[in-house]
Each structure stands twice: as C-alpha cells, then as structure tokens.
Amino acid sequence: MNEEEKEYIENRNLVFIELGKFNVYFEQVTHSFKTIIEYILLNNGLNNKDYVDCLTGKLTAEPIKTIFQSIISLYIKNTEDRKKLDKLVPLFSDLIEIRNIVTHSFWVIGVTVKEIPEPFISGIKPRISKNGVGIYNLNLEIKELSDLNYKLVEFNENMFDLGKCFKEKIKPPTEFELSFIEKMNFKAELKKMKSDFK
C-alpha cells in the first residue's frame, strides 16, 4: 500500500467516525426529548414507564417533536417559561432537517488541494422545492462536521439537565437551565446545506 492509499484510508476513516458520531448524537438528542415527555406523563398520573414506551417506542424524531410541543403546552402553566421551551421546537426541526440531509446523502471522500491538505467530504442529494430541483451544498471539510457534532453534544448535555427538572414535578426549570436555548442554533449549518451547489 503506497502513501496516497494510506492517506485515503485514514481520511475515509475520519469521515466515517464523524458521520457515525453525528447519527449517535442525534439519537441521543431525540432520546432527551422523549425522556422529558416520559417524566411529564409519569408526573401526571401515569404510573408505569412501559406505557410511555408503548406510545413512543417506535416513533421517529418528527412525531416526538410534535408530542413534546403539545405536552409542554399542557404542562407548563407559566407563559414566559412556555415561550422559552417552545423555542426548542424550531431548534429540533432544524436539527431533524440536517439529520435527514446528512444521513440520506451519497458521500464522496477526498482531500482538499491546499498547502496543508485536509480531508473533506462531498455529499450528493437532490433538493426538491417549489422552484424545481437543485442539489444540496454538501461540500464540507471534516472540521465542519466535527464542529456540528460538538454542538450536538452541547445541546444534548443541556437537554439532559433540563430533563432532570421534569423528573420531579416540584422543580420547574430555572432561568439558568433555560438560558442555553437562546444561545443554541443550527441555522448557519442548515443555510449552507440548503444553498444551491455551484
């Protein structure tokens, strides 16, 4: 095996690792939303977690998001807190869209032509809209995917902390525990992906 082949395999493995991490982290975020739904139901008369699993066990992220939005509207009586928690829904929507693009694309692996070459990935996925058909812009350097994964981890850690607030109904989320919602967004990543490939 020559040096070029070794470098290609190393780069390919880096891409596989980051794509794998993305899917694992995305499912962890989805699980955090599911867990908050579970805690709220258990705090409101449901006394067996198995029934929650019967309701949510086969659901994907999109219906989980819808149930989360509905249950928060019923459970959180404080209007200001509810408005803050409602902001999680568009955040999760953006993330779901990114996940659908990333997971369902055909990926090509290569190396940038720079003084110091860096691994990059290029995904191919048609983008269908009212304007016809385009191609998602999925020319990414590995660092962009790595940075996205870092944001996913941070989002999930905050969702985990938020979930603990719902575990005991006597403890509503505090300003501090809700503050991460304002700082977190996936708009830049989604905007880049949705811009037409040149």
Q: Largest sheet at a glance? A: 3 strands, antiparallel
Please tell me what the overall shape is.
elongated
Strand content: 5-15%
Distance linking N and C termini: 35 Å
Radius of gyration: 20 Å
Could you state the order of secondary-structure elements as H and E? HHHHHEEEEEHHH
The stretches of 5 or more residues where confidence is low (pLDDT under 50) are: none
Question: What topology, given as strand order, has the largest sheet?
Answer: 1-2-5
Number of domains: 1
Number of helices: 8
Q: Average the pLDDT over all residues and give the rounded result.
A: 84
Determine the fraction of residues in helical runs and give it as a percent range.
55-70%
Structural class: alpha+beta
Q: How many β strands by DSSP?
A: 5
SSE layout and pairing:
Blueprint: H1 3-42, H2 49-56, H3 61-75, H4 79-86, H5 88-103, E1 106-111, E2 119-124, E3 126-129, E4 132-135, E5 138-141, H6 142-167, H7 175-183, H8 187-194
Antiparallel strand pairs: 1-2, 2-5, 3-4
Helix pairs in contact: 1-2, 1-3, 1-5, 1-6, 3-5, 5-8
Relevant terms:
198 residues, two-stranded antiparallel sheet, elongated
Descriptive report:
The structure is a single chain. Strands 1-2-5 form a 3-stranded antiparallel sheet. A two-stranded antiparallel ribbon has the order 3-4. It is built from 8 helices and 5 strands, in the order H-H-H-H-H-E-E-E-E-E-H-H-H. It is α+β, with helices and mostly antiparallel strands and 198 residues long. 66% of the residues lie in helices and 12% in strands. Helix 1 (3-42) packs parallel to helix 3 (61-75) and helix 3 runs antiparallel to helix 5 (88-103). The two termini are 35 Å apart. Strand 1 (106-111) and strand 2 (119-124) form a beta hairpin. It has one domain (3-105, 143-194). The longest helix has 40 residues, at 3-42.
